[in-house]
Specification:
2 domains, Lipocalin, 41% strand, 25% helix
Length: 189
């Protein structure tokens, strides 16, 4: 059976209208998405990458607060063979190894102190960024937190036991060591 010419033209016009309407909806959604991305804070993975770039390099300073008194604390953070950012310090009586690993939108910190022959690192997970301070919470023991703040050429690392200051490390970036901080303020996601 043949459709009358008017019905055929009408059906074709409806399809063309539906196609145009669909294209318009897709275009509006794409524009809205672009606008939302332009106004949104940086992605968590970008913030973490900026944080790691800020940590990387040579630092000198001291552990100003420790259970055994102030100790020298010079450390250089470099990328290791697996791409993790790793630094090692020898404040006397032990070696401290700090290893940061980014996995997409998350960041881990493994801390190893060889004090008293210890060989078991502590795993800490990034919990939050509060007022420019990066807060890591230990998986075990749960009472341990590490808070890190970087400002231009200075880094302060605070180790907390039961939310009380246990160790405070104050570092200053050495001349000639790359500095890509501060990153723009924003949430880590």
């Amino acid at each position: 059976m043949r459709l009358p010419v008017a019905s055929f033209i009408e059906a074709r016009a409806r399809r063309a209208f539906a196609t145009a309407l669909t294209a318009l909806v897709i275009a509006i959604n794409a524009l809205a998405s672009c606008a939302a991305q332009a106004d949104s804070p940086p992605d968590a993975s970008d913030r973490i990458a900026a944080f790691l770039a800020a940590v990387e390099g040579k630092w000198e300073g001291k552990a100003a607060v420790t259970p055994i008194g102030p100790r020298p604390y010079d450390i250089t953070f470099r990328r290791n063979a697996t791409g993790d950012l790793e630094g090692s310090a020898q404040p006397g009586g032990a070696t401290h190894v700090w290893t940061f690993r980014q996995e997409g939108r998350s960041l881990q910190l493994r801390f190893l102190s060889t004090f008293r022959g210890n060989r078991q690192p502590i795993l800490l997970l990034l919990q939050d960024e509060v007022d420019g301070e990066w807060v890591f919470q230990a998986v075990q023991p749960v009472f341990l937190k590490v808070r890190i703040r970087i400002e231009t050429r200075e880094m302060v690392i605070r180790v907390l036991h039961h939310d009380r200051l246990h160790v405070e490390i104050r570092l200053r970036r050495l001349q000639g060591s790359a500095n890509r901080w501060p990153a723009p303020p924003g949430s880590i996601g």
